[in-house]
Amino acid sequence: MTTETEKLRIHFIYSVAILLSLLILVATDRWTNEPNFTAYLTNAATMTSLVLALVAIIYSFIANDGLSKSLGNISIVSEDVKQSKEQISKYLDLTTSSAELARDNANAMHAFSSDVNSTLQALDTALKAVASRTDALSGAITAIPTRLDQLENNVMVAAKLFGEKAQVPPRTGALEGIGTEAAQQFLEVSSLTANLLSYACVLANKTSKILSIEAFCEAADSNIPQWFSGYLTCMHAADLITVDRIKNARYREFTVTMVHPVLEQRAKSYFVDYVKRTFRDQKDQSDTWLARLTKVEHLFE
Q1: Alpha-carbon separation of residue 281 from 130, 271, 276, 284 (angstroms)
Q2: How far apart, in whole angstroms, are the C-alpha atoms of residue 158 and residue 160?
Q3: Residues with Cβ within 8 Å of residue 102, at least 6 apart in sequence
């Protein structure tokens, strides 16, 4: 299609050129002998010049108008490009800031991971130590019945040697099997709530007041009275304390007649030191446990 159009255009051009040439030749042949031919030619040239000048003026006006519009469009496009450049600059700044923030977050996460790893290692070490001390305490408690049997046998033998009736000595204090080290291990392996119960036993013995498990549960923000009653029984069996349950009482109430010297001396100080050391970076937890300690103390004021 394009080739045919080109051929037609070429044919049209040289056809017009031939016609113009023939027209000039005919005009020259007819008008050369005229006496005023030069004047006619001059007038024709003048008219042609005027027409061409007018065409040039009109063309210039149209061209200038188009050029003005083009310049206006170029100005608008330039302004849009400028705004786009500013937006791109802002996006680049935001991208740079985001990249720096992401890098800082990555570094912080790496440091946090290292801290967590160190904490887990320390926790593993502490758990191993707790397990070791628990085994030691379990061994000490397990040896109590054997030592009681040995003590009873020794009393029986002594009674036979002296011809007296064998009597089991009354329970007046901490047994030899529960020494200072075992009692200290008992504090260290017990939970914080259990340490609070140990301190409550100390206060009950010191003030000669009744230890109410229900009141203790309310002060310690706990709701497992059966567990605390069983814990008291275990402490009594281990001869860390001596308690008597009040019969016909409405609630679980006990009188504490004996407390191991280590519990009496160390129960509160160990609890406070442990809370401050363990929760030094967690003020809410530290305040909560110390508030529970204060509530327990109020029970025996």
Answers
A1: 22, 17, 9, 9
A2: 5
A3: none
Write b or e for each residue in 266-285: b if 16 or more Cβ atoms lie within 10 A of its Cβ, otherwise e: bbbebbbeebeeebeeeeee
pLDDT tens digit sequence for 257-285: 888 888 888 888 888 888 888 888 888 88
Alpha-carbon separation of residue 123 from 131, 279, 286 (angstroms): 12, 14, 19
Q: Does domain 170-298 have CATH number 1.10.3470?
A: no
Q: What is the CA radius of gyration of the chain?
A: 56
Alpha carbon distance 231, 227 (integer Å) = 6
CB 214 within 8 A of CB 252: yes
Looking at the DSSP bridge assignments, the partners of residue 254 are 211, 245
CA-based end-to-end distance of the chain: 113
8 A C-beta contact, residue 152 and residue 168: yes
Reading the block at residue 152, the tokens are: 């009873």
Report the alpha-carbon distance of residue 62 to residue 48 in Å, rounded: 21
The Cα–Cα gap between 198 and 266 comes to 10
Task: Please state, in angstroms and rounded to a whole number, the distance separating the CA atoms of residues 17 and 288.
Answer: 110
Whole-model pTM over 0.70:
no
Residue-wise pLDDT tens digits, 167-190: 334 444 444 446 788 888 888 888
- Residue appearing with tokens 């440091």: 111
Residues belonging to the chain: 301
pLDDT of residue 159: 42
Residue 261's contacts (CB-CB under 8 Å, 6 or more residues apart) are 174, 180, 183
Q: How far apart are CA 130 and CA 124, in angstroms?
A: 10
